[in-house]
Amino acid sequence: MIIAPSLLAANFLCLEKQCEELLKHQLTWLHYDVMDGYFVPNHSFGADILKQLKQKFPFFYDVHLMVSQPKIFIEFYKTIADVITIHIEACSHPQEAIELLKKIRSYGIKAGLSIKPKTSVEMIESCLPFCDLVLVMSVEPGFGGQSFMMDSLDKVKQLKELKIKHDFDYMIQIDGGINQETAKLADAAGVENCVIGSALFKDFPSQLGVYR
Ligand code: DX5
Ligand code: ZN
What we know:
Blueprint: E1 2-5, H1 15-24, E2 29-35, H2 47-56, E3 60-66, H3 70-77, E4 83-87, H4 94-106, E5 110-115, E6 133-137, H5 152-166, E7 171-175, H6 180-189, E8 193-196, H7 198-201, H8 208-211
Parallel strand pairs: 1-8, 2-3, 3-4, 4-5, 5-6, 6-7, 7-8
Bound molecules: D-xylitol-5-phosphate and zinc ion.
D-xylitol-5-phosphate (DX5) binds near residues 33 and 198.
C-alpha cells in the first residue's frame, strides 16, 4: 500500500521540516490538492509552491486537480507533476476525459481520473484503458477532515474487478477520511494507494510510522 500524504493538512509554518520527516519515513509521494473555487467551494495552492518544493524534495508529486477547467491547469503542472489526476465531473463527456488523459500521458507523466462520491464507476468505464491511476473520492472534494463514506468501497471493489478482468494497468487510489481504521478497510477492498491528510498531520510526526 502506497501512502500519499496530503499537503493540504500540513503545517505551513514548518513545511520544510515536515517534508524532511515524510521522506525520512520513506513516504515518497506528496498529494497536492489544486482547487479553483468553482469546481469545489474552496481554494488552495498554485503551481509556484510545487515548483519550490520540487527544487528541494524528491517526492513523487501527485497533483489532484479539483478544477472546472482541467485543460488549462494541466498546462500549469505538466513539467512539475509526476501524475496529474482530473475529475470526470469537470469534463462534458467521457471522450473529453480520454483526450485529456492522452494529453497528460503525451507529456511523459502518469494520468489519473477521479470520481466524486455521487459518480458511478460506469461513468468512467470507457476511460479506464487510458488511466494510470483511478481516484475514488471517499468524501465530497474540497475540504480535509471529513468522515469517510463507506459506500466508496463498493466502487473500489468494482474497479478492482474491472482491472483484473481487462488486465488494466491503473493504480486504485482513495482520498478522504482515511485513518488507521479506514485504511485497513480500503486495503481489504483493493485500494493500492491511500491519500491521508488530517490523520497523518495531526500530532505530527507521531503518526508517520503507523502508515509506513
Ligand atoms: C479533499 C482533498 C483531500 C484532503 C484529504 O478534497 O482531495 O486530499 O486533503 O484530507 P483528509 O485525509 O483529512 O480527509
Ligand atoms: Zn485530494
